[in-house]
Amino acid sequence: MRLGVLVSGSGTNLQAILDACEAGDLPAEVVCVVSDREDAYALVRAGCAGLPAMFIDRKAYRDEDEFNHEILDVLQGCGVDYVVMAGYMRLLGKEVLDAFPMHVLNIHPTLLPSFPGAHGIRDAFEYGVKVTGVTVHFANEVFDRGPILAQEEVHVDDDDTVETLEAKIHKVEHRLYPAALKAIASGRVRVEGRIVRLEP
Ligand code: GAR
């Protein structure tokens, strides 16, 4: 399973996926990493792993469609099977989604549909929830709304701060994303509309 990973930030989820592949826990290969931010540390991680890593600058394109067309060209040029959004903070264009139907995944640091958006951990903490978590889902044209593949809860303790909660959530993310990808790689995932089933 050839993965194209889209990133915008520090890339700890990318690293977890790379480590799982390297350890033989995930039968997949990251074949390219694309960032919409030049300063994303994820690009450094990709470079260290010897992977093709590129920054695609939205400002260099006339509109979102042209920008997404370039992303699609790169992904297809690398022979990607699955597109993995790992902290990619932009809505992926319809052209890319249509080219990879039910083959685009995203991770979100809350239990969707609660607290979608760019500040999920903080929003959940400030709301005062006692349970939050992590969601891995198939991406569609609505931000953080595609069919859910995996979720795991994280408890908010009385002495948690946003920072300690974030650390707990990242720890779960780094296990859940490779595990969800492994389920796909092993052919255990069946999608029926919004319902995603994991076969034993
Ligand atoms: C992760 O917590 C991920 O769930 C979140 O961005 C972080 C990226 O961290 N994504 C979203 O909020 C998407 N709506 P990373 O760059 O270290 O993997």
Descriptive account of the structure:
This protein is an alpha/beta fold. It has one domain: Formyl transferase, N-terminal domain (Rossmann fold, 3-Layer(aba) Sandwich). It has helices at residues 12-22, 41-48, 64-77, 94-99, 120-127, 162-185; strands at 2-7, 29-35, 53-55, 82-85, 104-108, 131-138, 148-155, 189-192, 195-198. A 7-stranded mixed beta sheet has the order 3-2-1-4-5-6-7, sandwiched between helices. It has a two-stranded antiparallel sheet with strand order 8-9. Strand 1 (2-7), helix 1 (12-22) and strand 2 form a beta-alpha-beta unit. Helix 1 crosses helix 6 (162-185) and helix 5 packs across helix 6 (162-185). The model has no long low-confidence stretch (mean pLDDT 97). The structure holds glycinamide ribonucleotide. Glycinamide ribonucleotide binds next to helix 1 and strand 5.
Chain-averaged pLDDT? 97
Sheet-strand content, in percent, reads 15-25%
Low-pLDDT segments, ≥5 res = none
Describe the strand arrangement of the main beta sheet, using strand numbers: 3-2-1-4-5-6-7
CATH topology type: Rossmann fold
Broad shape: globular
Query: What is the succession of H and E elements?
Result: EHEHEHEHEHEEHEE
Which distinct ligands sit in these coordinates?
Answer: glycinamide ribonucleotide
Q: How far apart are the termini?
A: 20 Å
User: How large, in whole angstroms, is the Cα Rg?
Assistant: 16 Å
Can you tell me the CATH superfamily? Formyl transferase, N-terminal domain
Main sheet specs: 7 strands, mixed
Instruction: Please identify the structural class as seen in this structure.
Output: alpha/beta
Oligomer status = single chain
Annotated CATH architecture: 3-Layer(aba) Sandwich
CATH class: Alpha Beta
| Helical percentage | 25-40%
Q: Report the strand count.
A: 9
* Count of spatially separate domains: 1
